[in-house]
Amino acid sequence: MRVLRFPELKSRKGIDWKRKTIIQKVHDGSFPRPMNLGANSIAWDEDEIDAWILARKHERDLSWLGTPMKEFQPRKQQET
User: Fold this and answer.
1) What is d(CA 48, CA 7) in angstroms, rounded to the nearest whole number?
2) Is position 29 within any domain?
């Protein structure tokens, strides 16, 4: 198991939130809970973060399936 400290959430996983935002999301259940490594040290299980990211991708893909395609067609260029 690999653990990710706060700076690695950004550098390795692209999660660019402030600490306060992540802790709020942990408390409301919308982000994985960290584990205590010591008195002033927490980290996240990389597998749990990867699963969380995959779940966000699934949510995006499922919500997109119900969207009519006409909304995603490119605009026609104006004739000059």
Assistant:
1) 16
2) yes
> Domain of 51?
3-69
Number of domains in the chain: 1
The answer as to whether 25 is a domain residue is yes
Torsion sign across C-alpha atoms 56, 57, 60, 65? negative
pTM to 2 decimals?
Answer: 0.74
Residue with token string 């709020």: 24
Give me the count of residues in the chain.
80
Give the pLDDT confidence of 6-39 residue by residue, as tens digits: 999 999 999 999 999 999 999 999 999 999 999 9
> Which phi and psi angles does 2 have, rounded to 5°?
-105, 140
Q: Is residue 44 domain-resident? A: yes
26 close to 32: Cβ distance less than 8 angstroms: yes
